[in-house]
Amino acid sequence: MNDAYRILKKMKEKKEQTFAQATIVHVDGSAYRHAGAKMLIGEDDSLYGTLSAGCLEEDLAYHAREVLQTRQPQTLIYHLKAEDDLSWGQGAGCNGSIQVYVEPCEWEARPRFQDEPVWPQVESLLDSGNKVASAKIIGEDNGHSVPLFYADNGTVLGDADQETRRRIIPGLKRFLQSGQKLQVVKPAHADADLLFELYEPREQLYLFGAGPDVEPIVRLASSLDFYVTLIDPRSSRCNKTVFPAADRCIPEHPEAYLQTNPIPGKSYVLIMTHSFQRDRHILRHLLSSPPYYVGVLGPRRRTERLFLPDAMPDWVHAPVGLRIGAEGPEEISVSVMAELLQIRNRR
């Protein structure tokens, strides 16, 4: 799950509110979520996201109210190993403990050294396909600060003077290149720790075809943090009325679209046009530069015929989806998205 992106969207939606943001910064043993998982607690006690299966959220909401009132962050430790109710965790018996950092945050937060709010700029970087790393001080009074951000296109944002940037940005660059989601760093000659976090854009999913069987896939893909681009020549089908969860609806023939819009190498492609010739054209176009994932609806023999006289490449998934005996559009959508999640999480 792309918790960081979901958090940004919720902050933007409720931009008039101040939130308490809770982040798991360390896990000892096993727990429901991994380090880097996030959730928001609103001023009205509303909860967005989850850090556990319901064991911690009530207590987190209590501490969140304190954080919002005092504007001071807190670090909480929950022991989940016990099987009785004498220690916190409601006897979860999960054989682990987690450390949670709770801090105030708001959409319109402005850095001391910049005139514009920082979070809309971070969102813009993510929507442009950039990864963004942030650094914030934990363990001291920083309730009014904004993190320092470094994007992989070189953009620097946030609460830091030139000297602080000079000291921290090299570490942020290394963290961004490492692929880690979260890291706690203790700088030399410093009392407080630095929390490095990774903000990633949503994965791009290109879906060719806008039939009724595509509707549940688009809904599910959007809910699972994919940026969905739908391509189909039928304007009566390829629109936001039929597919409100799609991010882009492009009423064009795939042949015309692909001539001027190369598919990025890190993206996912689903081919569901129900047209043999159209599927063949799309696949032939992708042969020279395959994306990260390509799935084709229909029996394997049909897909093999699309490549004749050549053999079907091993990077093509056909039939698309995990083998769960799915039947009907809703079940097939679960099968398809389960395979995409398997591929995404493996990466």
UniProtKB/TrEMBL annotation:
PANTHER family the record matches: ALDEHYDE OXIDOREDUCTASE MOLYBDENUM COFACTOR ASSEMBLY PROTEIN (PTHR30388), XANTHINE DEHYDROGENASE SUBUNIT A-RELATED (PTHR30388:SF6)
Protein name, entry field: XdhC/CoxI family protein
Source organism: Paenibacillus validus
Pfam families named among the record's database cross-references: XdhC_C, XdhC_CoxI
XdhC- CoxI domain span: 15-78
Source lineage: Bacteria, Bacillati, Bacillota, Bacilli, Bacillales
Chain ranges of the XdhC Rossmann domain: 205-340
